[in-house]
Amino acid sequence: MTAADARIGESWKGPLAAEFESPYMAALRSFLIREKEQGKRIFPKGAEYFRALDLTPLEEVKVVILGQDPYHGEGQAHGLCFSVRPGVRIPPSLVNIYKEISADIGIPPARHGFLEHWARQGVLLLNSVLTVEMGRAASHQGQGWERFTDAVIRAVNENDQPVVFMLWGSYAQKKAAFVDQEKHLVLRAPHPSPLSAHSGFLGCRHFSKANAFLESRGRTPVDWQLPERVE
Asked: How many domains does the chain have?
């Protein structure tokens, strides 16, 4: 897998060039080819593996939200963590994210789960692993994606602009443990899953805290209200 193969914005190609040229990325590409040759269905589609990077240029990143795996159900994943395509049922974790936004800043829950509006404003919706086999959660863990997305986080961490990292759950908190807290705002809470949301995610007020931080650093806050209609 090369930078030329990846549909990512130009701003990421320089910082990630060494990753695309590394043997582990070649091995990852071979793994994905073998999986497809065996007739396995891989989500999201190839053109959307790097959708989060395509929609959110490095210099425009304001907030990083970390997920773990793409959704493995039919028609859900499209390259942004927690987001699903228009017309797809809103997943339970996203329902809780909407509840917290409503309680925190008074925005009523959206009727869809399509989060591109956030991504286009500088919210990097990054999964740790960027592909999955249909119906098999975590099936592509340990194949190299984690190393690649670590490099993405490092690139954001080393950027001059102050950024908010929303780290929900122990997995995300461990993955981004190296982030410079002198420069960036690191917000931690339990995962928004129904299993843990009531243990501290609901009531965390991360969305108002993020916007207050951005404004205090001279950056435009995020409009968390999603458009009612999406194509």
From this structure: 1
